[in-house]
Each structure stands twice: as C-alpha cells, then as structure tokens.
Amino acid sequence: MFLADNLPVVTENPPVLDWWLLAPLLTVFGAGVLAVLFEAFVPASRRRPLQIGVAALALLAAFAMVVLQAGSLPEGQVGTTVAAGALAVDRTVLFLQGTIALLALVSLLLISERRDGRDAFAAQAATVPGSEEERAHILAGSQHTEVYPLVLFAVLGMLMFPAANDFLTMFIALEVMSLPLYLLCGLARRRRLFSQEAAVKYFLLGAFSSAFFLFGAAMVYGYAGSVNFAEIRAAVDAGGAAIFQEGNGEPLLLLGIGLVAVGLLFKVGAVPFHNWKPDVYQGAPTPITALMASGTLVAAFGALLRVFFVPFGGSAGQWEPVLWIVAVLTMVAAAIVAVSQRDVKRLLAYSSVVHAGFILTAVVAGSSEGLAGAMFYLAAYGFTTVGAFAVVTLVRTKDGGQELGDLDRWSGLGRRHPALAGALTLFLLAFAGIPLTSGFVGKFAVFEAAVSAGATPLVVVGVLSSAVTAFFYMRIILVMFFRDPEADGPTVVRAGAATGGVIAIGVAATLLLGLYPGPVLDLLPPSGEEPAAAMADQAAGTG
Amino acid sequence: MAVESHAYLAAETGAAAAAGSAVLSNAWLLIALPLAGAAILLLGGKRTDSWGHLLATALPVASFAWAVLILFDLLGRAGDARSVAVPVYEWISVGSLSIGADLLVDPLSISFVLLITFVGSLIHIYSIGYMAEDPGRRRFFAYLNLFVAAMLVLVLADNFVLLFLGWEGVGLASYLLIGFWQYKPSAATAAKKAFIINRVGDMGLLVAIMIMFSALGAVSFSGVFEAVPGAGDGVLLAVGLCLLLGACGKSAQLPLQAWLLDAMEGPTPVSALIHAATMVTAGVYLIVRSGPIFEGAPAAQTTVAVVGAATMIAGGIIASAKDDIKKSLAGSTMSQIGMMVLAVGLGPVGYVAAIAHLITHGFFKAGLFLGAGSVMHAMNDGVDMRRYGGLARVMPITFATFGLGYLAIIGVPLLSGWWTKESIISAAFGVGGTQGMLLGSAVVAGAGLTAFYMSRMFFMTFLGEKRWDEGVHPHESPLSMTAPMVLLSVGSVALGAFLVFGDRFANFLAPTIGAHPHHFDLAHAFTAPYGLAALGVLVVGVVLAWVVYLRKPVARTAPRGNFVTVAASRELYGNEINEGLFMRPGQVLTKALVAIETHVVDGIVNGIGTSVRDASRGLGRAQTGFARSYALTMLFGAVVVAATLVVRL
C-alpha cells in the first residue's frame, strides 16, 4: 500500500500489493537470490556455513511470519487474496505453508549433514561418474553449495503452489517447485548413474505431466474465459462463458478438469501416475527424497484440494467418480506392489503412494471434514516420513560408504542398535495407523470424513489396503528385531547432531500428534461448512 | 472430577450417578500405574535389571487394591447410580467430532478390572519364579505391565475409539510377548500370524466405528446407544457384524481362530494371562458392551450365537486331538470362549451367565495354564503329554491345584465351573423353541467334550505310569510359582458359588446391562432334564477318557505293540469295542477336523497370502524402469480420466 502511495504512477492500474502478506514468499525468494550471489562472490571455503545459515534463517522467518499472519486474521474471517487475486492467504493456506516451512527446515538439517567432510551430494556433478576427474574433485573435497539456493527455490514453489488462486500462478509455482528438484535428484554422491537416471526420468515425466496441466488449464480458460479460480467457479455456476449456450461448453470444462487432474495427480503420485516415485525416491540423495516425500506432497495436495474445492467445487458430481477410481487403484495397486519390495527406500516410496490414496479418500468426501482430515494427515505424515528417511541415511555398507537399503541385510539391526530401530519402528507403526501415533488420528480423520460423505466402500478398500500395508511394515520390524544379525551386516554410522535432531523431531511429532492432537486440530477448518468456505478466492483485481 | 454419566440404557435407569469421590475420580491411576511400570523398565534399561521385576509386580497389585476401593465405593451407591464417567482429557476434538479419553466405571467394567488386575498380579508373581533364569526378564515384565495397562484401557474406555486404542494395545503387547523368545523362528512366525489375523478383526471394529460415527453421529457408548432406537435395521446389522468380526479376531472365534494355538509359543505365564484369562475374552466384553446394538439387530445376534456354538465344538475336538499340553489347553480356551459367545448371542438373558463364566474361567484356566507351566518347568520344558504320567506324587501342590481347576472346568457340581456353565445351559434352553433346543444341546455337547479332553489331559499328565524321558527329574516348583496356583484354585472352587448363588452377580450387573436378572434355582439345576443331561455327559466324558487313557497305558509316541493286550486277553475284547465304537471314529473325526483345520482353513488363509504375493510380482513387472513405458501408462491413465469425465455426457 505505502509503496503505491509514494512512487510515481507508471501504469494506469498499478498493482496493489500487500507486502506483509507476501512477505513469507518474498523472504524465501530473497534468501534464494542472496544464496546465488554468495555462490558468485564468497570464497568456496566459507560458503557452506553461510548458505546453511541463510537458508535456515529464511525458513524460520517464513514460518514465523506465517504464524503471525494466521494470528492476525480476525476471528471468523477466513482470509483474503493478494496480488490482484493471484495468491490466496487464508487459514488453509497458512496451515499448509507453515507445515511446509517446518518440513523444509527439518529436511534442511538432513541436507546439511556431513560425515568426514562429505555430504550426500556429488563433489562435482559435471564430471563423468567414475572418471579420473571425479576422483580428483573428491580428493580435493569439492562440494556443491548450490544445493542450498536450489532447495530455497524449490521451497518457494512449494509455498506458492497451495496458495495459487489462478491457473497461471499455479503453473508457475509448479515449475518453480519442480525444476530445482529435478536437478537436486541427480546430485547423489554415490551411485551417481542411478541418481542421474532418476533425475532424467523425473524431468521427462514431470514435463509430460506439466503439459497435461497446462493443456487442461487452457481448456478451462476456453470454457470460463478466465484463469482466476473465483471467476471459473462463477462461470461454472452460470453454465460457462457467454459464448456458450445451454451447457454446450461442458465437454471443454470436463476435459479441462480431467487434464488438470492428471497434472496434479502426477505430483501427488497417485496410480496410474505414480511410476516415477519409486525410481526417483530410490535414486535421489536421501535428504532430497525426504524433502520431496514431505514438502512436495503437502504442496501438491494443497493445490489439488484448492483446485477441486474452489474452481471445480461446483462440478463435484463430475469429478468425484474419477477420484473414486484413482483412489481405489492407488490404495490397492500400490499396497500390493509394495509387498514384494526388497529395498527400504522403494518401499517407503510405495508407502507414500498408498498414503496419497488414503488422502484422496478425504478429497472424494468433498466436505470440510475431508479438507481438515487431509490437512492433518499431510502434517502428520510429513514429519513421520522425514524421520523415516533420516533413519535410512544412517544405515550403510560395511565401509560406511553408500546407504544400504536392501531389507534382507537389515537382519538383527534392532538388537545392535535398539534406539535407531525403535525410532523407525515408531514411524512404521504410525504409517500403519496404530493408535497413539499421529498416523492413527490422521487415518481416522480422513476415513471418518469419507464415511460421513457416503463413501463407505472406499473406506472399506482403504482399511483393507492399510491391513496389507501393515503387513510390510511389520516385516521390516520383524527383520530388525526377530532375526539374527548377519556377520557382514550393515554399519550404522553415528547420527550427527543434525540427523539425530531430525529423528528426534520425527519421534516427538509422531507421538505428540497421536497423543495430544487437539492444538493442531483446532487450527483446521471447522466442519459443517462447504470446504470452499475455508478458502479465500476473490476474483482478479479485487484483492 | 467425576461427573454424572448417562447410564447407557438411560431410558430405564433414569437417575444418573452422583458426583464421585476421590477414589473414583482418580480411576485413571488404575491404568497409569502399570503403564508407568512399563515405561520405567523399558526406558531405564539395564539399571533396572535387579529390581525391575519387583516394581513391575508391585504396580498391578496396587492397581488391584485401587480397584477394590472403587468396588466398595460403587457398592455404597444405589444400583442405578453405579455408572460413573470419569473424564481424563479431551483427546481428539475437531468440529462435530469430539473424543475424550474418558473412563467409564460401572459394574461391568469394574468386574473386568478386578479380574485383570487380580489374575494379572498373580501371574506377575508367578513369573518371578518362572522367568528367574531368563536374560530378558526385565523386558518380559515391561511387556506384561504394558499389557495390563492396555487391557485396562480397553475395558475402562467410555467410547469406542478409546476402546479401540486398548484393543490395539493388547494386540501389540500380545505380539511382543508371543514373540518374546525371538530366537525361536516358530515364535517369531506365531507372533506375526497372531498380529495379522488380529488386524483383520481390528478392521471390522474400525469400520464399525466409522459407520457408527456417520450413521449414528457418535462414538461414545452413551451417544451410540441413545441413537440406536432411531437407526435403520441395515445400519445396525452392518455395525453388529463388523463388531462381531472384531470380536472373532481377538477372541479366536471361527473363522479367525487359527492364531491362538500358535500363540502358545510364548512363555506360559503369557498364555495364562493373555491367551486364557483376559485378552481373548475381550470379544465377549465388546459384544456385551455393545448390547443395545445387537438387540437392535437380531440377525447379527443369531450369527453371534452360531459362531460361538461352532467354535465351542471345534475347539473341543481340537483340544481332544493335541498331545501338546499347552495346545490342548488353547483348544479348550477356544471352546470355552465359544460357549461364552454363544451365551451373549442369546441376548440380555445370557449376558450375566456369559460374564460370570468368563470370570470363573479366568480363574481356573489361568490356574490350569500355570499348572501346565509348573509341569513343563519340572520336565525340562517338554510339552508332550505322552512323556508325562505319574506326576501326582512328585508334584503334590501342582497336582492338587491343577486337579481342582480340572474339576471346576468340567463342571463337577458345586465347583465354580458348574455354577456358571449351568447358568449358560439354562439360559440357552430358556430361549425356547427350536433355537433354544439346538443351542442348549450344543452347550451340553460342548460340556461333554470338555469332560473328555480335560480328563484325558489330567490322566495323561498326573496319573498312570511314568513315561518320562531319560535325564528328567521332576520336582515341585518354588513358592512364588505355587502360591499363585493355590490362590487361583481357591477361586476355581468357590468363586462360582459366590457369584451365582443368591444371584449376587446378576443383581450387581443388572443396572449396567439392563438384563432382567435371571434367577438361578439350585434345586432346579439338579432336577431339570438339562441339568441331568449335563451331569450325564460329564460322566460319559470322564469314563471314556478313563477307559482310553488310564485303563490302558498310553503310548509314548505313535501307538505301537501293546503288551497289555497280550497279558490281559479278557480286557482286549472290551478295548476293541471301545476302539471300534468310540476311539477310532473319534480319532478319524478329530484327524479329519485337524486336517480340515490345517489344509482347508489354513489353505484359504495362506492362499490369500500367496495370491497377493503373486499379484505383487505381476504388478511389479509393470515397473520396467523405462521412462517411455511410464509415460505410456500416464497417457493411458489420462485417457481413462478424461473418458470417465466426458463419456458420461
């Protein structure tokens, strides 16, 4: 506001920007830009602590600002939009943004962890794997501190994604989030070819899905004459833009909904758009996998909830059957495939797919209970999964080199390292939805929402699927505790302060959200209303 | 602070409970004490090795003492003021969904609390001796405490969600304790089997809760039962059947019974506490607690009775076929719980009988298991009854206590089991009509089976000739083991009369379960046709076992050439008749049933597992690793999504 008052008018309609409401995004963006400058001007030896410090401060500041914004929202008011209706700032968005900021902060701890002066990332990503040049860089102790600006930009995209209030902003957020992640996936220090393959796959398939999203957005624009969510909703209620008569524009809208859905379902990893997840989760450096499995999932589901509840809220009858099918496919197929996985990271990837299916049941509910359930589930699952991946980073081959994900080799881990295996057991019990863990409250919330909305068959499938998943979580626990340790079993490297902290945070969050979820539940949208009522969606230009 | 609660059949009971005393408002201590024990022992690590087991034993005793205080507090109130809700804290609250971690103290729950803490305390004491040499003793006691805490949560919960928490908790503790001797692969497998079969049952309970919340708008007992009269038949039937599935899993009823026999891989005190006296009866508790739902769904209630009857007979036959003393007892547990489930399937008229039998069964079955543990202790952990025999003289205390438990379970008149079994039989015949006749006859037949297999066990173990392995030198167990057995045998003798005579227990429970108290007529029990029939089958069962297992020496392994048949030719004839008429058909029948058990039932269960694995491999093949095939899958998915949306037009 004050800027508009003080500066000379350069356009006829200067955008009215509420800088305070944009501050969390701008802080992360500014820190990212600053980090790029550090890369250019600060000597290599001093970059790392500086980069970590700036990234951590920016994420903390973003979280603090989100909390302050949520606190300053007047009672009974759901929120507003900023930047000419491009971004929403409401309770739902603020909850998701706060969750993402915290999850990113925790993941940052994992990313910053170093062992014997080496982090999880390639010494010099441009060298050919296995070449002399690579060895020289490793010996010289080179490192990619570019990881930190990339992470910051990815987090910026994640923060924007669920807040976007029109399809263009959402698309930009999608790309801002995805592009750095494609790069980060290919930076693993060990098994580099594998990591690069994962990055290329992720990039190709991600581009493919973005095209679907964009194509769908274009069709919706053709139908509604706007990309703004509020205007699309109004157009849907009115039967399409003025050029259409008697609903003959509906195929355009439905195709649009379908294609946008494909783009978003790819990001959350629902079947049949899930194939990338196991390969990418396994190939990427584990700290990056943790970030993707937590932050990206929250952001993608945030966007998905907004798109289905706000612009397409009036067409629920049309899209619900599609999500029914996708949710059933996801819960059934992923759970079944997971049973025969032998690698822990792949197993966690499939588990993430199954969890996406569980959350989809809450979307299908199409109610504010469903919205609240999905939000709680995302927060609960995020912290648990980061903790689980943190454990994975500690289990390595005999020489302490690369991570050892092969389940058969984990025999007896629980007897040698009871604390570590105990923490992982807690995370797995939470994934399985055992009471007193956050996973139970989350599952209860989403399933209860789905049953209330009349989707009982879906819940029966979900509960059956969760029984199958309980089987493979139990198998990990069995292998760790009930089998004799192998002579050439894995080495568990000592958890550094950062990794130890991540595991402790994961344990604390899993237990707290299971034992005393009240304070977090209070932040969620109240039930009994239209889910869209919990989301601010002014039309363009009025924000 | 304790506040008034709506006794959940509020319509009849009218007045609510008065504000509670300090004893009642701190009822959470019942749970907190053993839970603290588990935490201290698990977190304290090796430092607690030397005294941990003593602390872990003291805490359930303290819980028991507290429960007795609560009982007297309740007895000091009017009958309809004995149902008290004790709020602890608000667990989950969002929108219309509000679930408190509240406890419900009423005659039904306090009966269970007393059983759990009393038998639990005795078994802790017994374990001090039994596990003295075990390197994992501290862990064992921690798990036992955890189990007691979870079981108390289950029976004290004021709503279905908290009940489910206890339900899962006892499942977890049971899993940890069955697999306690992890180095035995059979124990690890048994633990897994128990866990997975129980998950199937848990799903039923969870779905039932979901349906209650959506259709009845509540998950608390009082809220659900108030909504029952206005609910549709379909809803109640669905909830009832889902609850029954949950009960079947936990209580090892058909078709989810397969885990209980394997669960005997756990240490014997665990079998006594969890797999005989308490956890396996949770299903009976669940059905009684959910009484109003089942009364609103007669079809579900009938299913309950049928499941119970089938399990009762199958369990009895399995128990008759096993040579492993613990597995035979486990079959007996299945059978007895089947009898209780049958009784609760009769409706309110059977509730008191079922709960009374549950409590007396808790005593004598725990006593029998502890006796079996004592015998195993003496026989170098051998479990094959064909290698026992003649132990009466070397183990007099075990013999006497086991013997009293044996007489009680087969229903010798005036001992505990007789009172409660007679109550069930008379309740079943009291239903009237064909259903009453069928169910009542089934119970009588079950009682006959019980007499046979328990006599067989008793004769093979304590009487007859010594068939010991070389190097086995049986001895009586230490005091810490025999003392609990003695106390339990007192219960085996007198508890039934105490509960049933003068309708004491029925009057105590009446306000909670809304049953018109069923008067127990002592004279009638001896003169009525069904009473005489029950006595008749008792005699037949015992005599049959005597003829087969005591009169004729028992083979140490597979039956081989029998020198007695040569020496005493006169008896040979009778033996052959016995064999031809009773034993062979019986053996064929038991073998057939065991074969059905192992090949058909397990085959179906295993078949499901195998087909999931095969499907998993098949689907896994779709994960080729080629980006192009992934993209093709996505394209296919996109076409399906678009088609689903557009083609509907």
Tags for this model:
heterodimer; A: 543 residues; mainly alpha; two-stranded antiparallel ribbon; two-stranded antiparallel sheet; 21 helices; 69% helix; B: 649 residues; 27 helices; 4 strands; NADH dehydrogenase (quinone) (non-electrogenic) activity (chain A); quinone binding (chain A); NADH-quinone oxidoreductase subunit N (chain A); NADH dehydrogenase (ubiquinone) activity (chain A)
Tell me what you see in this structure:
Chain A: Belongs to the complex I subunit 2 family. Chain A: GO terms for molecular function: NADH dehydrogenase (quinone) (non-electrogenic) activity; NADH dehydrogenase (ubiquinone) activity; quinone binding. Chain A: It catalyses: a quinone + NADH + 5 H(+)(in) = a quinol + NAD(+) + 4 H(+)(out). The complex is a heterodimer of chains A (543) and B (649). Chain A is 69% helix and 2% strand. By secondary structure, chain A is mostly helical. Chain A has one domain (23-112, 144-539). In chain A, helix 11 (276-283) runs antiparallel to helix 12, helix 13 packs antiparallel against helix 14 (344-365) and helix 13 (316-339) runs parallel beside helix 19 (456-482). The longest helix of chain A is centred in the middle third of the chain and has 33 residues, at 192-224. The mean pLDDT of chain A is 88. By secondary structure, chain B is mostly helical. Chain B contains 27 helices and four strands. The model of chain B is unreliable at 1-19 and 558-583 (pLDDT under 50). Chains A and B meet through helix 8, helix 10, helix 11, helix 13 and helix 15 of A and strand 2, helix 7, helix 8, helix 26 and helix 27 of B.
